[in-house]
Amino acid sequence: MENNIKLRSVRGTHDLYGKEIEKYNEIKNTVTKNAEARSFNEIKTPIIEFTELFLKPLGIQSDVVLKEMYTFEDRNNESLTLRPEYTTPMIRAAITNNLLSELPLKLYGLGSMFRRERPQKGRYREFNQINFETFGSDKFMVDLELIILANDILKSLLPNHKIKLHLNMLGTKQNLAEYKRNLSIYFNQNKHKLSSESLEKIDSNPIRILDSKHEDDIKIVNLAPSIREYISPNSKKYFDEIKQGLNNFNIDFYEDHKLVRGLDYYCSTVFEFKTDSLGSQDTLLGGGRYDGLIKSLGGPDIPGIGWAAGIERISMLMENQKYKKNIVHLAIIDEKYNNYVQEIIKFFRDNKISFYWNYKYNLKKSLIKANNSDASYVVIIGENEFKGNFYTMKKLDTGEQHQLKIEEIKKFLDDKS
Ligand code: AMP
Fold first, then answer.
1. Who is most buried in 2, 102, 148, 184, counting CB within 10 A?
2. Distance from the CA of 127 to the center of ligand 1, in angstroms?
């Protein structure tokens, strides 16, 4: 039967392989090391959740809920959604698995999220995120720890990039509600000057007009009331303590009074790490406090704070050339040395030394293959080696060669790496 399927991947999705999966794994390793050092526990939740988990917390009027969720009816008519973000599923999992009895609860996870956005560089419909969350503490030290953790992870993955921390304080839920009311009034007074996109948000979600990139809006936004005038003295003190903490650790930040974040559940501290190397999709990481969210999902009345970073965006900035592997290629000249070859393969296996062999007996081809690969070494086995009971180890970048006994190889590789 003829196969008429036109194979293609779904728009906005991508396969991870080769360098990209190596970078993904390096990101995962760095995240895991940092998480373990600070006693965060890993969690992995299902990709599908009941739709209602997201509707109210993210905001019925948020872009994610209005336009971007992948929602479908299951065969038993229940509405399910591919998770568009990780905070609410983590809270759901903490509540349903009774993890909130000992506080604070510190969780982290990596996984794919789904949003039906317009795909472009750095923006996909399925993308991978790193998420860190701390439930159950209202101390500024938690905010500080999470921001420093984000900074450490980004610095260690992207040591050569300029990444800027933007910081804002949205105050309490009440402060924010009052601010929104006044923003609506102000934007209504300037209705005729706003873009049509912003007009839709005047009453439903006025703070989202603040991060509009539309030229007409920017002029109006620049003269809009500032959140600074609405935050309570306690919130201000809290913010001052965070800023002082960042200064103590020499972490530069920019106080950005227009930073609001896209989802409804945020209040108090909000932050983003931005780069100028990625065009318009310039936010690598974003997060903040969401006091009240856990209670609204049926959990105890405890505060929470967390952040999410985009793995694809970090990966796009990571250098490629670093990924030379400590792998040894085998170049075997003739089948008659198979027993001798098996000895070294056993040695590699036992010592967890990565090796590769194309199962061919052609010195020239094997050397070309090794040179075009990520390998650092090639081990050559021919008549001289067999007779002399040694192996020729060639370092691929310099071309230097060493004749080594099997028991010398491990030390040689350890010394070189
Ligand atoms: P958010 O949950 O919107 O605060 O996003 C947190 C981080 O996830 C962003 O800073 C991006 O790095 C990343 N991110 C969000 N949406 C996308 C997307 N559609 N494609 C790729 N990365 C994304």
1. 184
2. 8
What value, to the nearest 5°, has the Cα angle with vertex 16 and ends 67 and 70? Answer: 20
> Residues with Cβ within 6 A of ligand 1?
85, 115, 117, 122-124, 127, 129, 262, 283-286, 308-310, 312-313
CA of 140 to the centre of ligand 1 (A): 25
- Cα gap 373→370, rounded to integer Å: 5
Please check whether residue 287 is in contact with residue 146, taking contact to mean a CB–CB distance below 8 angstroms: yes
Torsion of CA 323, 114, 111, 208, to 10 degrees: 90
Average pLDDT over residues 335-356: 94
Report the pLDDT value the prediction gives residue 164, as an integer from 0 to 100: 96
Q: What tokens were used for 329?
A: 């290629």
Q: Is the peptide bond before 104 cis (omega within 30 degrees of 0)?
A: yes
Q: Return the ligand 1 atom nearest residue 262 CA.
A: 3
Task: Using DSSP bridges, classify how beta strands 377-381 and 391-395 pair: parallel, antiparallel or unpaired.
Answer: antiparallel
Residue 51 Cα to ligand 1 middle (Å)? 20
Mutation pick for ligand 1 pocket among 67, 129, 264 (CB with most ligand atoms within 8 Å): 129
CA distance 400 to 45: 50
> Which residues have C-beta within 8 Å of that of residue 392, sequence separation ≥ 6?
379, 380, 381, 382, 384, 385, 401, 402, 403, 404
Atom 11, ligand 1: residue with shortest CA distance:
310
- Coil, helix or strand for 149? helix
What distance in Å separates the CA atoms of residue 158 and residue 150, rounded to the nearest whole number?
12
Q: What is the DSSP letter of 101?
A: G
Compute CA distances 247 → 145, 158, 240, 330, 411, whole Å.
13, 21, 10, 53, 45
H or E stretch including 201?
A: none
What are the beta bridge partners of residue 165? Answer: 253, 273
Ligand 1 atom nearest 285 alpha carbon: 10
Query: pTM value?
Result: 0.86
For residue 310, report the distance from its CA to the centre of ligand 1, in Å.
5
Collapsing DSSP to helix, strand or coil, 25 comes out as helix
Please, what is the end-to-end C-alpha distance for the chain in angstroms?
54
Tokens 């030379």, residue? 324
Q: pLDDT tens for residues 9-49?
A: 999 999 999 889 999 999 999 999 999 999 999 999 999 99
Residue type present at position 221: V
